[in-house]
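Possible race condition, two jobs.
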Amino acid sequence: MGVRYTLVESNTTDAPSNAAATYNRGFNVPGGAVDEVIIRITQTLNAASDISADWPNVVSSLRLILNGETVWDYTGGYTSATNNAASPLGYLLNSMGRGRSVEVNTGDATREVFLRIPIGRNIAAGISRFEYSISYAALAGASSANTVQWWIRYNPAMQTTTTLGAATTFNYSATTQQVVMR
Protein backbone atom coordinates (compact mmCIF):
# COMPACT_ATOMS: atom_id res chain seq x y z
CA MET A 1 0.00 0.00 0.00
CA GLY A 2 1.31 3.45 -0.88
CA VAL A 3 1.22 6.88 0.72
CA ARG A 4 -2.31 8.11 1.44
CA TYR A 5 -3.55 11.61 2.28
CA THR A 6 -6.79 11.89 4.26
CA LEU A 7 -8.67 15.11 4.98
CA VAL A 8 -9.83 14.74 8.60
CA GLU A 9 -11.07 18.26 9.46
CA SER A 10 -12.10 21.37 7.56
CA ASN A 11 -13.60 24.57 8.93
CA THR A 12 -13.80 28.30 8.29
CA THR A 13 -13.38 29.49 11.88
CA ASP A 14 -9.92 28.45 13.14
CA ALA A 15 -7.85 30.97 11.17
CA PRO A 16 -6.13 34.10 12.49
CA SER A 17 -7.81 37.50 12.26
CA ASN A 18 -7.45 40.97 13.77
CA ALA A 19 -7.72 39.69 17.37
CA ALA A 20 -5.45 37.19 19.12
CA ALA A 21 -7.28 33.88 19.50
CA THR A 22 -6.93 30.25 20.56
CA TYR A 23 -8.85 27.39 18.96
CA ASN A 24 -9.26 23.91 20.44
CA ARG A 25 -10.80 21.07 18.51
CA GLY A 26 -10.83 17.29 18.44
CA PHE A 27 -11.95 14.72 15.92
CA ASN A 28 -11.65 11.04 15.04
CA VAL A 29 -9.09 9.75 12.57
CA PRO A 30 -8.63 6.33 10.96
CA GLY A 31 -5.81 4.10 12.21
CA GLY A 32 -2.58 3.46 10.35
CA ALA A 33 1.01 4.62 10.03
CA VAL A 34 0.71 8.40 10.54
CA ASP A 35 3.79 9.96 8.99
CA GLU A 36 2.83 13.62 9.31
CA VAL A 37 0.02 16.06 10.01
CA ILE A 38 -0.55 18.70 7.35
CA ILE A 39 -2.28 21.99 8.10
CA ARG A 40 -3.50 23.91 5.04
CA ILE A 41 -4.82 27.41 5.59
CA THR A 42 -6.18 29.74 2.93
CA GLN A 43 -7.29 33.25 3.66
CA THR A 44 -7.70 36.69 2.18
CA LEU A 45 -6.17 39.47 4.21
CA ASN A 46 -7.54 42.98 4.44
CA ALA A 47 -4.20 44.20 3.03
CA ALA A 48 -0.95 42.48 2.07
CA SER A 49 0.78 44.19 5.02
CA ASP A 50 -1.51 42.45 7.55
CA ILE A 51 1.28 39.85 7.77
CA SER A 52 4.65 41.48 7.13
CA ALA A 53 6.76 38.39 6.47
CA ASP A 54 6.01 34.68 6.37
CA TRP A 55 2.65 33.45 7.59
CA PRO A 56 3.81 31.19 10.49
CA ASN A 57 4.88 34.37 12.34
CA VAL A 58 1.31 34.57 13.67
CA VAL A 59 1.32 31.09 15.29
CA SER A 60 1.92 31.61 19.02
CA SER A 61 1.51 27.97 20.01
CA LEU A 62 0.52 24.66 18.50
CA ARG A 63 -0.18 21.48 20.45
CA LEU A 64 -1.08 18.17 18.81
CA ILE A 65 -2.46 15.28 20.86
CA LEU A 66 -2.98 11.79 19.45
CA ASN A 67 -4.91 9.31 21.61
CA GLY A 68 -4.07 11.28 24.75
CA GLU A 69 -0.34 11.57 23.98
CA THR A 70 1.07 15.03 23.28
CA VAL A 71 3.17 14.51 20.15
CA TRP A 72 3.92 18.16 19.31
CA ASP A 73 3.97 21.08 21.72
CA TYR A 74 5.32 24.27 20.15
CA THR A 75 5.34 27.60 21.96
CA GLY A 76 6.74 30.61 20.11
CA GLY A 77 8.99 32.91 22.09
CA TYR A 78 7.88 35.86 19.96
CA THR A 79 5.01 36.03 17.51
CA SER A 80 3.68 39.04 15.67
CA ALA A 81 2.09 39.70 12.31
CA THR A 82 4.39 42.71 11.98
CA ASN A 83 7.61 40.72 12.51
CA ASN A 84 9.35 41.24 9.17
CA ALA A 85 11.65 38.23 9.50
CA ALA A 86 11.55 34.48 9.17
CA SER A 87 9.18 32.90 11.69
CA PRO A 88 10.50 30.63 14.44
CA LEU A 89 7.90 27.95 13.59
CA GLY A 90 8.67 28.05 9.87
CA TYR A 91 12.40 27.87 10.59
CA LEU A 92 11.91 24.94 12.98
CA LEU A 93 9.82 22.97 10.48
CA ASN A 94 12.10 23.66 7.51
CA SER A 95 15.16 22.71 9.57
CA MET A 96 13.62 19.22 9.77
CA GLY A 97 13.27 19.00 6.00
CA ARG A 98 12.72 21.26 3.02
CA GLY A 99 9.16 22.24 2.25
CA ARG A 100 7.70 21.61 5.70
CA SER A 101 6.59 25.26 5.95
CA VAL A 102 5.46 26.61 2.60
CA GLU A 103 3.50 29.73 1.75
CA VAL A 104 1.95 30.17 -1.69
CA ASN A 105 0.92 33.77 -2.29
CA THR A 106 -1.53 33.86 -5.15
CA GLY A 107 -2.16 37.58 -4.83
CA ASP A 108 -1.12 40.56 -2.73
CA ALA A 109 -3.47 39.76 0.12
CA THR A 110 -4.26 36.11 -0.61
CA ARG A 111 -2.40 33.46 1.38
CA GLU A 112 -2.23 29.69 1.07
CA VAL A 113 -0.06 28.03 3.72
CA PHE A 114 1.05 24.44 4.25
CA LEU A 115 2.60 23.32 7.54
CA ARG A 116 3.82 19.70 7.39
CA ILE A 117 4.44 18.46 10.92
CA PRO A 118 6.29 15.14 11.23
CA ILE A 119 5.03 12.91 14.04
CA GLY A 120 5.67 9.32 12.92
CA ARG A 121 3.17 7.29 14.92
CA ASN A 122 1.59 3.90 14.29
CA ILE A 123 -1.96 4.04 15.55
CA ALA A 124 -4.15 0.99 15.93
CA ALA A 125 -6.65 0.00 13.29
CA GLY A 126 -10.08 1.47 13.89
CA ILE A 127 -10.83 4.93 15.18
CA SER A 128 -8.32 7.12 17.03
CA ARG A 129 -8.70 10.56 18.60
CA PHE A 130 -6.77 13.61 17.36
CA GLU A 131 -6.92 16.95 19.18
CA TYR A 132 -5.25 20.28 18.65
CA SER A 133 -4.88 23.65 20.28
CA ILE A 134 -3.59 26.49 18.13
CA SER A 135 -3.07 30.11 19.21
CA TYR A 136 -2.53 33.09 16.94
CA ALA A 137 -1.24 36.61 17.39
CA ALA A 138 -3.52 39.34 16.05
CA LEU A 139 -3.23 40.32 12.40
CA ALA A 140 -2.95 43.98 11.48
CA GLY A 141 -6.43 43.76 9.91
CA ALA A 142 -9.38 41.41 9.58
CA SER A 143 -9.25 38.41 7.25
CA SER A 144 -11.95 36.79 5.16
CA ALA A 145 -12.56 33.71 3.01
CA ASN A 146 -10.78 31.57 5.61
CA THR A 147 -10.40 27.82 5.28
CA VAL A 148 -8.47 25.61 7.70
CA GLN A 149 -7.87 22.00 6.72
CA TRP A 150 -6.18 19.22 8.67
CA TRP A 151 -4.77 16.34 6.66
CA ILE A 152 -3.09 13.13 7.80
CA ARG A 153 -0.42 11.54 5.64
CA TYR A 154 -0.34 7.78 6.08
CA ASN A 155 2.90 6.14 4.98
CA PRO A 156 3.48 2.43 5.69
CA ALA A 157 7.22 2.92 4.99
CA MET A 158 7.53 5.54 7.76
CA GLN A 159 10.53 4.79 10.02
CA THR A 160 11.01 7.85 12.24
CA THR A 161 9.06 9.11 15.25
CA THR A 162 9.30 12.84 15.93
CA THR A 163 8.24 14.44 19.20
CA LEU A 164 8.44 18.10 20.13
CA GLY A 165 7.90 18.00 23.86
CA ALA A 166 6.76 20.82 26.11
CA ALA A 167 10.15 21.23 27.76
CA THR A 168 11.93 21.97 24.48
CA THR A 169 10.23 25.27 23.63
CA PHE A 170 9.53 28.13 25.99
CA ASN A 171 9.82 31.88 26.29
CA TYR A 172 13.50 32.64 26.75
CA SER A 173 14.99 36.12 26.93
CA ALA A 174 18.65 35.14 26.45
CA THR A 175 20.28 35.11 23.04
CA THR A 176 20.62 31.33 22.62
CA GLN A 177 18.15 28.49 22.97
CA GLN A 178 18.88 24.81 22.44
CA VAL A 179 16.09 22.68 20.98
CA VAL A 180 16.23 18.89 21.28
CA MET A 181 14.25 16.80 18.78
CA ARG A 182 13.62 13.12 19.51
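Job #2 (started ~2 s after job #1):
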Amino acid sequence: MEKRQILSRFATVLSLGILFSLGLALATEPSLLSVEDARCRANLGKGVQRQMAVTAAQKARCFKLAMRGKLESTADCHDPGTWVGTRMEAGAIAIDRSLSLSRKLAEKGCSDASSPDLLGYSLCPAPCEAPIGESYDDVVGCLGCVTASCLGDVVRSAYGSPRTLSFPEEKPVFRCQNVLGVAIRVYLRLVVRAQQRCQLMQDREKEAFLGADCGNLADPAHPFASTFQKARERLFKLVDKCVSRYGVDIGSQLDTCGTDPETLAACLETVSDACAQAMFAANYPTPAIGAESVGAAAPAR
Protein backbone atom coordinates (compact mmCIF):
# COMPACT_ATOMS: atom_id res chain seq x y z
CA MET A 1 0.00 0.00 0.00
CA GLU A 2 1.10 3.57 -0.64
CA LYS A 3 0.53 4.54 2.98
CA ARG A 4 1.92 8.07 2.81
CA GLN A 5 -0.27 8.90 -0.18
CA ILE A 6 -3.36 7.49 1.50
CA LEU A 7 -2.75 9.31 4.78
CA SER A 8 -2.08 12.54 2.90
CA ARG A 9 -5.42 12.17 1.16
CA PHE A 10 -7.15 11.54 4.50
CA ALA A 11 -5.62 14.68 5.96
CA THR A 12 -6.90 16.72 3.02
CA VAL A 13 -10.40 15.28 3.27
CA LEU A 14 -10.44 15.75 7.03
CA SER A 15 -9.41 19.40 6.66
CA LEU A 16 -12.15 20.02 4.13
CA GLY A 17 -14.68 18.30 6.37
CA ILE A 18 -13.69 20.42 9.35
CA LEU A 19 -13.99 23.61 7.30
CA PHE A 20 -17.43 22.56 6.09
CA SER A 21 -18.49 21.72 9.65
CA LEU A 22 -17.21 25.02 11.01
CA GLY A 23 -19.03 26.89 8.29
CA LEU A 24 -22.20 25.06 9.14
CA ALA A 25 -21.84 25.72 12.84
CA LEU A 26 -21.38 29.44 12.24
CA ALA A 27 -24.21 29.68 9.74
CA THR A 28 -26.82 27.65 11.59
CA GLU A 29 -29.16 29.93 13.50
CA PRO A 30 -32.53 29.35 15.19
CA SER A 31 -35.49 29.20 12.77
CA LEU A 32 -33.18 28.75 9.78
CA LEU A 33 -34.89 25.58 8.57
CA SER A 34 -38.52 24.61 8.31
CA VAL A 35 -39.82 21.30 9.65
CA GLU A 36 -39.99 20.02 6.08
CA ASP A 37 -36.39 20.99 5.35
CA ALA A 38 -35.15 19.39 8.57
CA ARG A 39 -37.01 16.19 7.72
CA CYS A 40 -35.50 16.17 4.25
CA ARG A 41 -31.95 16.44 5.53
CA ALA A 42 -32.62 13.74 8.12
CA ASN A 43 -33.95 11.34 5.49
CA LEU A 44 -30.97 11.98 3.25
CA GLY A 45 -28.77 11.15 6.23
CA LYS A 46 -30.62 7.88 6.82
CA GLY A 47 -29.87 6.93 3.25
CA VAL A 48 -26.17 7.62 3.77
CA GLN A 49 -26.16 5.46 6.89
CA ARG A 50 -27.82 2.59 5.04
CA GLN A 51 -25.48 2.71 2.07
CA MET A 52 -22.46 2.94 4.37
CA ALA A 53 -23.55 -0.07 6.42
CA VAL A 54 -24.46 -2.28 3.46
CA THR A 55 -21.34 -1.45 1.44
CA ALA A 56 -18.97 -2.05 4.35
CA ALA A 57 -20.66 -5.34 5.25
CA GLN A 58 -20.56 -6.63 1.68
CA LYS A 59 -16.91 -5.72 1.24
CA ALA A 60 -16.10 -7.55 4.48
CA ARG A 61 -17.91 -10.61 3.12
CA CYS A 62 -15.92 -10.34 -0.10
CA PHE A 63 -12.61 -10.29 1.76
CA LYS A 64 -13.61 -13.36 3.76
CA LEU A 65 -14.13 -15.28 0.52
CA ALA A 66 -10.89 -13.93 -0.96
CA MET A 67 -8.78 -14.90 2.05
CA ARG A 68 -10.24 -18.42 1.92
CA GLY A 69 -9.43 -18.71 -1.78
CA LYS A 70 -13.11 -18.99 -2.70
CA LEU A 71 -13.45 -15.81 -4.77
CA GLU A 72 -13.02 -15.57 -8.52
CA SER A 73 -9.86 -13.77 -9.64
CA THR A 74 -11.92 -11.27 -11.65
CA ALA A 75 -13.51 -9.86 -8.49
CA ASP A 76 -11.80 -6.96 -6.73
CA CYS A 77 -13.21 -6.58 -3.22
CA HIS A 78 -12.53 -2.85 -3.33
CA ASP A 79 -14.63 -2.44 -6.50
CA PRO A 80 -18.21 -3.79 -6.40
CA GLY A 81 -18.41 -3.09 -10.13
CA THR A 82 -16.26 -6.20 -10.69
CA TRP A 83 -18.52 -8.50 -8.69
CA VAL A 84 -21.00 -9.29 -11.47
CA GLY A 85 -20.78 -12.94 -12.45
CA THR A 86 -18.94 -13.93 -9.28
CA ARG A 87 -19.87 -15.20 -5.83
CA MET A 88 -20.21 -11.55 -4.79
CA GLU A 89 -22.84 -10.64 -7.37
CA ALA A 90 -25.56 -10.69 -4.69
CA GLY A 91 -23.44 -8.24 -2.71
CA ALA A 92 -23.33 -5.83 -5.64
CA ILE A 93 -27.10 -6.07 -5.92
CA ALA A 94 -27.46 -5.35 -2.19
CA ILE A 95 -25.37 -2.19 -2.56
CA ASP A 96 -27.47 -1.05 -5.51
CA ARG A 97 -30.60 -1.64 -3.47
CA SER A 98 -29.26 0.49 -0.65
CA LEU A 99 -28.92 3.36 -3.11
CA SER A 100 -32.48 2.74 -4.32
CA LEU A 101 -33.65 2.90 -0.71
CA SER A 102 -31.86 6.22 -0.34
CA ARG A 103 -33.82 7.56 -3.29
CA LYS A 104 -37.08 6.38 -1.74
CA LEU A 105 -36.20 8.04 1.56
CA ALA A 106 -35.44 11.27 -0.29
CA GLU A 107 -38.68 11.08 -2.25
CA LYS A 108 -40.62 10.55 0.96
CA GLY A 109 -38.82 13.09 3.12
CA CYS A 110 -38.07 15.88 0.65
CA SER A 111 -41.34 16.18 -1.29
CA ASP A 112 -42.36 19.31 0.65
CA ALA A 113 -38.86 20.69 1.26
CA SER A 114 -37.21 23.69 -0.36
CA SER A 115 -35.34 23.11 -3.60
CA PRO A 116 -31.88 21.49 -3.35
CA ASP A 117 -30.00 24.69 -4.18
CA LEU A 118 -31.72 26.57 -1.33
CA LEU A 119 -30.63 23.86 1.09
CA GLY A 120 -27.06 24.24 -0.14
CA TYR A 121 -26.91 21.31 -2.55
CA SER A 122 -25.40 22.94 -5.63
CA LEU A 123 -21.98 21.36 -6.15
CA CYS A 124 -21.02 17.89 -5.00
CA PRO A 125 -17.82 18.11 -2.91
CA ALA A 126 -14.52 16.40 -3.74
CA PRO A 127 -13.73 13.90 -5.01
CA CYS A 128 -17.04 13.75 -6.89
CA GLU A 129 -17.10 17.45 -7.84
CA ALA A 130 -20.11 17.61 -10.13
CA PRO A 131 -22.97 20.13 -10.32
CA ILE A 132 -26.15 19.01 -8.56
CA GLY A 133 -29.36 19.45 -10.52
CA GLU A 134 -32.82 20.51 -9.39
CA SER A 135 -33.89 17.06 -8.20
CA TYR A 136 -33.21 15.37 -4.88
CA ASP A 137 -32.40 12.27 -6.89
CA ASP A 138 -29.27 14.18 -7.96
CA VAL A 139 -28.50 14.91 -4.30
CA VAL A 140 -28.76 11.20 -3.49
CA GLY A 141 -26.36 10.43 -6.31
CA CYS A 142 -23.87 12.94 -4.91
CA LEU A 143 -24.12 11.57 -1.38
CA GLY A 144 -23.75 8.05 -2.73
CA CYS A 145 -20.58 9.03 -4.58
CA VAL A 146 -19.02 10.71 -1.53
CA THR A 147 -19.96 7.78 0.72
CA ALA A 148 -18.56 5.15 -1.65
CA SER A 149 -15.32 7.10 -2.12
CA CYS A 150 -14.42 7.81 1.50
CA LEU A 151 -15.63 4.41 2.71
CA GLY A 152 -13.38 2.83 0.12
CA ASP A 153 -10.45 4.65 1.72
CA VAL A 154 -11.37 3.33 5.16
CA VAL A 155 -11.76 -0.26 3.95
CA ARG A 156 -8.48 -0.10 2.02
CA SER A 157 -6.70 1.08 5.17
CA ALA A 158 -8.07 -1.85 7.18
CA TYR A 159 -7.62 -4.57 4.55
CA GLY A 160 -5.14 -3.41 1.93
CA SER A 161 -4.81 -6.30 -0.52
CA PRO A 162 -5.03 -9.39 1.69
CA ARG A 163 -3.58 -12.60 0.32
CA THR A 164 -5.11 -16.06 0.19
CA LEU A 165 -4.40 -17.68 3.55
CA SER A 166 -3.39 -21.20 4.44
CA PHE A 167 -5.77 -22.95 6.85
CA PRO A 168 -5.65 -23.87 9.66
CA GLU A 169 -2.16 -22.39 10.15
CA GLU A 170 -3.20 -18.81 9.35
CA LYS A 171 -6.65 -18.86 10.89
CA PRO A 172 -5.58 -16.26 13.53
CA VAL A 173 -4.73 -13.84 10.69
CA PHE A 174 -8.15 -14.47 9.18
CA ARG A 175 -9.86 -13.78 12.49
CA CYS A 176 -7.78 -10.66 13.10
CA GLN A 177 -8.67 -9.27 9.67
CA ASN A 178 -12.37 -9.89 10.31
CA VAL A 179 -12.12 -8.10 13.66
CA LEU A 180 -10.64 -5.06 11.91
CA GLY A 181 -13.61 -5.08 9.54
CA VAL A 182 -15.99 -5.10 12.49
CA ALA A 183 -14.00 -2.34 14.20
CA ILE A 184 -14.34 0.16 11.36
CA ARG A 185 -18.02 -0.64 10.81
CA VAL A 186 -18.91 -0.19 14.48
CA TYR A 187 -16.87 2.99 14.82
CA LEU A 188 -18.38 4.63 11.75
CA ARG A 189 -21.90 3.61 12.70
CA LEU A 190 -21.63 5.17 16.16
CA VAL A 191 -19.95 8.37 14.95
CA VAL A 192 -22.22 8.99 11.95
CA ARG A 193 -25.38 8.33 13.94
CA ALA A 194 -24.28 10.78 16.63
CA GLN A 195 -23.41 13.45 14.06
CA GLN A 196 -26.75 13.12 12.32
CA ARG A 197 -28.74 12.99 15.56
CA CYS A 198 -27.04 16.18 16.74
CA GLN A 199 -27.78 17.95 13.45
CA LEU A 200 -31.42 16.89 13.48
CA MET A 201 -31.84 18.27 17.00
CA GLN A 202 -30.14 21.49 15.91
CA ASP A 203 -32.35 21.75 12.83
CA ARG A 204 -35.35 21.34 15.11
CA GLU A 205 -34.03 24.17 17.31
CA LYS A 206 -33.49 22.09 20.44
CA GLU A 207 -31.78 24.46 22.86
CA ALA A 208 -29.09 22.04 24.04
CA PHE A 209 -27.84 21.63 20.46
CA LEU A 210 -27.89 25.20 19.18
CA GLY A 211 -24.39 26.39 18.33
CA ALA A 212 -22.88 22.90 18.53
CA ASP A 213 -20.41 21.84 15.86
CA CYS A 214 -22.30 18.63 15.15
CA GLY A 215 -19.76 17.24 12.73
CA ASN A 216 -16.91 17.37 15.25
CA LEU A 217 -17.54 14.78 17.94
CA ALA A 218 -13.97 15.18 19.21
CA ASP A 219 -14.98 18.56 20.66
CA PRO A 220 -15.42 18.02 24.45
CA ALA A 221 -18.40 20.40 24.33
CA HIS A 222 -20.20 18.29 21.74
CA PRO A 223 -23.57 16.99 23.03
CA PHE A 224 -22.48 13.46 22.08
CA ALA A 225 -18.82 13.70 23.12
CA SER A 226 -19.28 10.67 25.39
CA THR A 227 -20.50 8.62 22.42
CA PHE A 228 -17.34 9.50 20.55
CA GLN A 229 -15.15 8.42 23.46
CA LYS A 230 -16.98 5.10 23.72
CA ALA A 231 -16.63 4.54 19.97
CA ARG A 232 -12.93 5.33 20.16
CA GLU A 233 -12.33 3.03 23.12
CA ARG A 234 -14.15 0.21 21.35
CA LEU A 235 -12.11 0.71 18.18
CA PHE A 236 -8.80 0.52 20.06
CA LYS A 237 -9.98 -2.50 22.05
CA LEU A 238 -11.00 -4.42 18.94
CA VAL A 239 -7.75 -3.66 17.14
CA ASP A 240 -5.78 -4.81 20.18
CA LYS A 241 -7.47 -8.24 19.94
CA CYS A 242 -5.34 -8.97 16.88
CA VAL A 243 -2.32 -9.26 19.15
CA SER A 244 -3.72 -9.99 22.60
CA ARG A 245 -6.06 -12.78 21.47
CA TYR A 246 -4.80 -13.95 18.08
CA GLY A 247 -1.07 -13.24 18.35
CA VAL A 248 -0.84 -11.64 14.92
CA ASP A 249 2.17 -9.56 13.87
CA ILE A 250 0.34 -6.64 12.28
CA GLY A 251 3.39 -5.24 10.53
CA SER A 252 4.37 -8.45 8.73
CA GLN A 253 1.19 -10.51 8.46
CA LEU A 254 -1.32 -7.86 7.39
CA ASP A 255 -1.46 -5.21 4.67
CA THR A 256 -2.92 -2.34 6.68
CA CYS A 257 -2.02 1.28 7.42
CA GLY A 258 -0.36 0.39 10.74
CA THR A 259 2.51 -1.71 12.04
CA ASP A 260 1.25 -2.43 15.57
CA PRO A 261 -2.05 -2.10 17.49
CA GLU A 262 -1.42 1.52 18.51
CA THR A 263 -0.46 2.87 15.09
CA LEU A 264 -3.14 0.84 13.33
CA ALA A 265 -5.93 1.95 15.66
CA ALA A 266 -4.80 5.57 15.39
CA CYS A 267 -4.69 5.34 11.60
CA LEU A 268 -8.13 3.73 11.34
CA GLU A 269 -9.53 6.39 13.66
CA THR A 270 -8.05 9.19 11.53
CA VAL A 271 -9.27 7.69 8.27
CA SER A 272 -12.74 6.94 9.65
CA ASP A 273 -13.07 10.43 11.11
CA ALA A 274 -12.11 11.92 7.75
CA CYS A 275 -14.78 9.80 6.08
CA ALA A 276 -17.43 10.75 8.64
CA GLN A 277 -16.53 14.44 8.19
CA ALA A 278 -16.73 14.13 4.40
CA MET A 279 -20.15 12.47 4.52
CA PHE A 280 -21.40 15.01 7.06
CA ALA A 281 -20.20 17.96 4.99
CA ALA A 282 -21.90 16.60 1.88
CA ASN A 283 -25.11 15.79 3.75
CA TYR A 284 -25.34 19.12 5.60
CA PRO A 285 -24.04 22.00 3.46
CA THR A 286 -24.75 25.54 4.58
CA PRO A 287 -28.29 26.45 3.45
CA ALA A 288 -28.64 29.41 1.09
CA ILE A 289 -31.85 30.48 2.77
CA GLY A 290 -32.98 32.54 5.75
CA ALA A 291 -36.01 32.14 7.96
CA GLU A 292 -38.07 34.46 5.81
CA SER A 293 -37.42 32.52 2.59
CA VAL A 294 -37.71 28.94 3.84
CA GLY A 295 -40.13 27.04 1.66
CA ALA A 296 -40.54 29.99 -0.72
CA ALA A 297 -39.29 28.02 -3.70
CA ALA A 298 -41.38 25.37 -5.38
CA PRO A 299 -40.73 21.97 -3.79
CA ALA A 300 -38.23 19.83 -5.69
CA ARG A 301 -39.31 16.27 -6.38
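The chain is about 60% helix and 0% strand.
Logs attached separately.
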